[in-house]
Amino acid sequence: MQGATIFAYCERGMSPAFWAEPLNAITNAAFVAAGIAGAVMIARQTPAERSAWSIFFALNFVAIGIGSFLFHTVPNPTTGAADTIPIGIFMLTYLIFALRRFAGAGVLLTASMIALFVGAMALSGEVQCYGGRVGFGLAVPEGARAACLNGGLAYGPAVVALVLIAGTLAIRRHRAAALVFAAAVTFAVSLTFRTLDPTLCADFTLFGYRLGTHFLWHLLNATTLWLLLLASIRYSRQSGKGTAQRIEIIPPRPAALRGRR
């Protein structure tokens, strides 16, 4: 794990020590716990009920927790990749899953939505900012540039995607709509705490120790992912509008039996 130490969050300050971010490091256990809880639920399902998507998501959660733990203990470009890549994989795969399994979208529409999402993520990451504040398209001097909204702007397309998916599912009366909407709201709150980490650094303290708010991003993100995993475990077999209704076809009674009770 080579590379210069990255000082990105309030709790670390300017210390390169392994345990300089104890809360930010330990709260990654929430991702692992969500993955294990999901695995237990999946194991209790019958083979016909299990979805390969849900199994993948549960394993992905463990990878997210491990990658983020590495970054918050040994923060450098290598562990930064270990932190962000599993998250990116989850966002793309869950979007594909939701479009295909929940919304019943075709391959062409799904590919178009994925391309739009990736493009939006790339563009949001290129927005220039003054000291973390959005520059509204103005040229920002290099020395004054900083990650927009503490890097939170790059996650904006994910919030929009969740809201749109939840709305689409609600219109189609899909049972997963409530869980996806709850995940969207939770993620929006989580993103707010991530953004406020440097702003509240001096005020969010305990016995003089600077906590920051990034650990809340971890806990709320784990909750977001758990809600989405729960939706995939419960409703991965349901697609289309509404819930399928059971229709019983009763054959006509023979003429000789008509009129008899």
Structural class category: mainly alpha
Radius of gyration: 23 Å
Number of discrete helical segments: 8
String of helices and strands:
HHHHHEEHHEEH
Uncertain runs with pLDDT below 50, 5 residues or more? 241-250
Task: Could you tell me the CATH topology label.
Answer: Rhopdopsin 7-helix transmembrane proteins
Query: Strands of the biggest beta sheet: in what spatial order?
Result: 1-2
Report on the structure:
The chain is mostly helical. The protein has a single domain (22-237), classed as Up-down Bundle (Rhopdopsin 7-helix transmembrane proteins). The protein has helices spanning 22-26, 29-43, 52-73, 77-102, 107-126, 156-171, 177-196, 214-235, and strands spanning 129-130, 133-134, 205-206, 209-210. Strands 1-2 form a two-stranded antiparallel ribbon. The longest helix is centred in the middle third of the chain and has 26 residues, at 77-102. The N and C termini lie far apart (82 Å).
